[in-house]
Amino acid sequence: MLNPDGVYLGNYRCSLMGFDLNRHWANPSPWAHPTLHGVKQLIVEMYNNPKINLEFYIDIHAHSTMMNGFMYGNIFENEERFQRQAVFPKLLCQNAEDFSYSSTSFNRDAVKAGTGRRFLGGLLNDTSYCYTLEVSFYSYIVGGTTAAVPYTEEAYMKLGRNVARTFLDYYKLNSLVERPLAATPKTRKEKLPVFKCNTQQGQGTSHADSKPEKRSQAHLKDQSLPAQ
Fold this sequence. Notes:
By secondary structure, this protein is α/β, with parallel strands linked by helices. The protein folds into 2 domains: 1-52, no CATH class; 53-178, Aminopeptidase. The chain has 6 helices and 6 strands; from the N terminus they run H-H-E-E-H-H-E-H-E-E-E-H. The strands form 2 sheets. A 4-stranded mixed beta sheet has the order 1-4-2-3, with helices on one face. It has a two-stranded antiparallel ribbon with strand order 5-6. Strand 5 and strand 6 form a beta hairpin.
């Protein structure tokens, strides 16, 4: 929870000071954006720790107009990395009836440059996957039907359990749950099979043919933030 003061006051997007926190990841201020500053510092420290293999970053948000759960992902110049990034949302689509892969989008929208998903996607290396998980404020439509099912607290919690289940499926594919979860090199590149998932109704599109954007990890260590 990176916006506790804003949420306490009833805001769902802005902090107490009026900042949209998910637009300030590039250069968070310890005074104006203390939660982003602290989390970014922690992520960089984890990434630079040779004993830690940082593989996923998932930022969770509610969406005010679209239905279902869906994800935003990044576009990469490397086609293999781009295809591997699609594995997790495809697996989640198989586990969660309210998750829509057809609404999942991979993009490099300029207005999203300051989001955690976009910024960390460029900061971390090619074995780290960064997503935004969006979930409707209102309802979801199960594939093959037209009736909207209102979200309840239990339905949101069920989606969270399905995300956890998807991690288990993902690591089974990587054969990591069949042996002790030891630290693995950051250069590991497993071959994962292609999955089919029934698409569900949604308003978004996947932009697999969008222009790729180049990423650089050269300045990662330079962006480590001083301890407070």
